[in-house]
Design goal:
mainly alpha, 10 helices, globular
């Protein structure tokens, strides 16, 4: 039974590691922007770090959904060396992107006083994009330490995965397929709940962070990956048609 459940236990360990790394990024974010949160009592800070796990788990499950699906795929092909190598690099690459988003806010937050969201992608298009790529070398020069922190996090991802990933058991018996299919179904339900942030009717959003703290401190509860995820499909508010017509009449 231990062998049959080891893959699932390993996956939960990996998710736990990601929660820990998100917490490390949040602590660094607090340190780098201490003056903005200086009036926050340390007990309140600990409370926010605890409740932030709910939001971190949501975005971790979403960004790693393909990895989780392939990792728990209930067939023996997942035990082959090639398959395991694909899983390792998928885990490292996807979560490196998330770590990069977390690291950007260490320096970027002081200019916007809000977490990075999907609007950041506007910097890669048009004249804004041209200016962005011109300013990028200056940014890297002034905030070189952010690049070092990011590199450390990526190396940690790779090293920890290597340490946690167990020796593979290449031979499956018929009962193993039954158990793995059962674990696959049960764990899928668990991960859906974690992504939704609980059993409420709607998945958690940025607005839910206000349940735990004031608007000013919401950036400590959510992370850039969560903010980007929740603002991805948000459209800019367009003026009402009547307002546009009225504006045209005033111009005449």
């Amino acid at each position: 039974m231990l062998i049959r459940t080891k893959n699932l236990f390993t996956l939960f360990k990996l998710i736990g590691v990601l929660v820990g790394l998100y917490s490390v990024c949040r602590l660094l974010f607090y340190i780098f922007n201490y003056t903005y949160f200086s009036d926050l009592h340390y007990l309140e800070l600990l409370k926010l770090f605890f409740f932030s796990i709910r939001f971190d788990l949501s975005v971790i499950i979403l960004t790693n959904s393909l990895f989780i699906f392939l990792y728990l795929w209930p067939f023996s092909i997942r035990e082959t060396a090639g398959y395991r190598s694909i899983l390792k690099w998928l885990f490292v690459i996807v979560n490196s992107v998330a770590m990069f988003a977390n690291c950007v806010d260490l320096a970027y937050f002081q200019f916007t006083l809000k977490r990075t969201n999907s609007s950041v992608f506007n910097f890669f298009t048009g004249q804004i994009g041209h200016d962005f790529f011109q300013l990028l070398p200056i940014f890297l020069k002034d905030y070189w330490y952010v690049l070092i922190i990011f590199s450390f996090l990526v190396v940690s991802l790779y090293y920890i995965y290597q340490k946690i990933e167990p020796d593979r058991f290449l031979s499956w018996r018929i009962p193993d397929y039954f158990y793995q299919i059962w674990y696959f179904i049960i764990s899928t339900g668990i991960f859906i709940v974690l992504y939704r942030g609980g059993f409420q009717l709607k998945p958690i959003s940025i607005a839910n962070a206000s349940e735990y703290t004031s608007v000013k401190n919401i950036p400590l509860v959510i992370s850039p990956p969560f903010s980007i995820m929740k603002t991805w499909k948000v459209q800019a508010i367009e003026p009402a048609k009547e307002c546009k017509l009225r504006e045209e009449e005033l111009k005449k």
